[in-house]
Amino acid sequence: MSEVSTTTANEVAVQPLTIAQAALALFSPLEKDVETLAERHRNVVFDLSTPKGFKAAKDARLELRESGRFAVQRLRDKTKDQLNDCKKVIEDEATRLIAIVSPVETFVDEQIKVHEKKLADEKAERDRIEAERKQKHLDAIAKIEAYVAMAEGLPIERIEAGLAYVRDIDVSAEVFADFAVRASAQKDATIRALEKMIAEARERAAAEELRLENERLQAQLDELKRQQPAAAPATEPTDAPAAQDEEQRQEAEPVRPRPALASYSVRRAPHAAVAAPAPIQQALPVAPAANESADHGATTLRIGVIAERLGFALTAEQLRGLGIEPASRERGATLYHEHQFPQICDALARRAAEAKAAHMQPLAA
Question: Is the pTM value of this prediction over 0.70?
Answer without folding.
Answer: no
